[in-house]
Design brief:
- This protein is an alpha/beta fold and 143 residues long.
- It has a single domain (8-127), classed as Diaminopimelate Epimerase, Chain A, domain 1 (Roll), CATH 3.10.310.
- The protein is built from 5 helices and 4 strands, in the order αβαββαααβ.
- It has a 4-stranded mixed sheet, sandwiched between helices.
- The longest helix is centred in the last third of the chain and has 19 residues, at 107-125.
- The termini are close together.
Length: 143
C-alpha cells in the first residue's frame, strides 16, 4: 500500500494526534497502516517495531499501533519499558476503544482515540525531560 487510504485532512489529523500524544512525554508512538495482513497482527506489529528500530529508543518506551484496513485487523505493541509500567490488560482496553470507533466506520477517530489512550500512560510514566528529543518521526507509515 503505497497510497494512503485517508484524505490529506484525515492524514494530517492523525499526524497531529501523534505529535500531541508525544507532547509532554519522552515516549514515541508510530501508526502503521496496511491493506492486508496475512499473519497475526500482533506478530506483524512486533516485526514492524523492530524494522523501524523502535526498540532502540533510550527508555524502551515506544508504541506502535498497527492497522490492516481491508482485513480489519489491529494490534498495539509496546516496548519493554512501557509494558513494565502499564497495568495488565491496558493495551487490550485501548484496542477495544479503537475498535468501538472502527465498528461505526470512524477509522480516523479510532486511531486518534488510541493515540490519546497510549499518551496518558506515556505521560504518566515517562514525562518529558529537559533534554528530551523526538527520536522518531511523527508520521504514518504505509505498507
Amino acid at each position: 500500500m503505497s497510497k494512503s487510504p485517508f484524505s490529506k485532512e484525515e492524514e494530517q489529523k492523525i499526524i497531529n494526534a501523534i505529535a500531541e500524544a508525544e507532547n509532554g512525554t519522552s515516549g514515541e508512538i508510530r501508526v502503521h497502516i496496511d491493506n492486508f495482513c496475512k499473519t497475526d497482527p500482533l506478530l506483524k506489529a512486533k516485526n514492524l517495531f523492530s524494522h523501524f528500530k523502535m526498540n532502540e529508543t533510550e527508555l524502551r518506551n515506544g508504541v506502535i499501533i498497527y492497522i490492516s484496513i481491508e482485513d480489519k485487523k489491529i494490534a498495539i505493541f509496546g516496548d519493554k519499558g512501557i509494558n513494565e509500567k502499564v497495568e495488565a490488560g491496558f493495551w487490550d482496553s485501548t484496542l477495544q476503544k479503537i475498535i468501538s470507533y472502527f465498528s461505526n466506520g470512524e477509522i480516523v477517530n479510532g486511531i486518534v482515540a488510541g493515540l490519546q489512550e497510549a499518551s496518558i500512560k506515556l505521560k504518566e510514566h515517562f514525562p518529558k525531560s529537559d533534554n528530551d528529543k523526538n527520536e522518531l518521526p511523527d508520521e504514518i507509515s504505509f505498507g
